[in-house]
Amino acid sequence: MRMLVLGAGLQGSAAAFDLLRDPDVKLVRLADRHVGEPRPFLRRFASDPRLETVALDVRDAAAVGRAMDGVDAVLSAVPYHLNGPLARLAVEAGAHWCDLGGNTEVVLAQKELSGAAARKQVTVVPDCGLAPGLVNVLAEAAIRRMDAVDSCRLFVGGLPQAPEPPLHYQLVYSLEGMLDYYTTPSWVLADGRREQREALSGRETVEFAPPLGRLEAFHTAGGLSTMGFRYEGRIGRLEYKTLRYPGHAAIMEAWRDLGFFDAREVDVKGTKVRPRDLVIALLDPRLRKPDARDVVALRVLVEGWKSGQPARLGFEVVDRADEEHGISAMMRTTGYSLAITARMQARRELGPPGVWTPDECVPAEPYLAELARRGIRVTELV
After folding, report:
1. Which of 40, 105, 212, 335 is deepest in the core (most CB within 10 A)?
2. How many other CB atoms sit within 10 Å of the CB of residue 273?
């Protein structure tokens, strides 16, 4: 298998690391606009001829086409708004495509590539990181084990193992992306109908075993992917919520409502400033703690009917940073999920060619077996 990874940030580098540990992978072409020193955990592969680093501006279609030449699959760890045209280029090149996604509107646009992908005999799988991604595969697995579903609820959070006030949070992915999630309305199903909920609303308490303990959950966008469209009229309640330590959402909601996350420029003593840029400049160095350890918490709860009786089941994941290799829990559950999906695509294990979200095409049993091989344990809740 020959793989192209777009984006050498945290998630892209974690995906490359996972691919390079597979002897069946003959090439990992890691491309980024600025190619510098590889992440410390990738240095063990510095002399491995299978690792090839490429300076690439993903907005240069011709250069992207050349980078895609001869690869079996393309893995995207670049910002979601770039994925639409890049997925089209991958299909034209006859390569499978998967990305971390996170924006439902972009995914719906990618769905329009289904005919072209089928003609090229490739699959396009957006939204295949942690959330959306792993959590959707688990939700689909739980739904399929029921005869009828009344409620399906998804909870996911990336958290510091040692939270510090006032936000009790550290960056585990892009701060720009986090602000998008805190400002974009979330799609849910309520009484079987699609509705939108304001980000950071619907706060509730979710209990995990110590040391995590009590967390708060609230609506954010993107985590359901297109499941709300698929199950409209078939499931009464379907929703995704982000997990944080208690008190985080109230602070972020106040800042948002006061305009600090706005992208529109304001005049500050004669200088045009985007409030969001100021917040990122202030918060990023304070929340980016490379030596701090993180934990990912995930829970899926499904309620409905089985064999004529009320039934409740679900799944839970609590994954911690890999201290030996210096790989965060968020990178493991997100970057590794991306790499697993790409390998399954290259092996043609995901069903017919076309465009599919993970809940539509990823077989849960072998996927979860791959996660288990990496020490990411999924516990069944009954």
Report:
1. 335
2. 12
Strands 73-76 and 2-6, sheet pairing: parallel
134-329: CATH number: 3.30.360.10
The one-letter amino acid at 75: L
CB-count exposure of residue 98 (10 Å: 0-12, 13-18, 19+): buried
Strand, helix or coil for residue 69: coil
Which amino acid appears at position 378 of this protein? V
Residue pLDDT, tens place only, 95-114: 999 999 989 999 999 999 99
Give first-to-last CA distance, the chain, whole Å: 39
DSSP 162: S
Residue 40, phi then psi, degrees to nearest 5: -50, -40
CB atoms within 10 A of CB 106: 20
**For 10-59, how does the pLDDT look when each residue is reduced to its tens digit (9 = 90+)?**
999 999 999 999 999 999 999 999 888 889 999 999 899 999 999 999 99
State the Cα–Cα distance between residues 26 and 89, nearest whole angstrom.
Answer: 22
Find residue 238's DSSP bridge partners: 152, 189
The alpha carbon torsion through 218, 224, 230, 234 (nearest 10 deg) reads -30
Query: Would you say 28 and 49 are in contact if contact means Cβ atoms under 8 Å apart?
Result: no
Task: Decide: helix, strand or coil at residue 118.
Answer: helix
For the chain, percent of residues with pLDDT exceeding 90: 93
CA–CA separation, 174 vs 291, rounded Å?
17
* CATH 3.40.1650.10 at 2-129+331-381, yes or no: no
Q: What residue segments make up the domains of the chain, in order of their start?
A: 2-129+331-381, 134-329
**For residue range 142-153, what is the model confidence (pLDDT) as tens digits?**
999 999 999 999
Place of tokens 């809740």: 381
Chain center to CA of 194? 22
Predicted local confidence at residue 266, as pLDDT: 96
Question: Which tokens go with 44?
Answer: 């063990």
pLDDT band at residue 164 under the 50/70/90 scheme: very high
For residue 274 the two structure tokens come to 């985007």
129: DSSP letter: B
Amino acid at the residue 214: R
CA within 13 Å, CB half, 118: 10
- Whether the CB-CB separation of 139 and 146 falls below 8 Å is answered with no
Percent of the chain with pLDDT over 70: 100
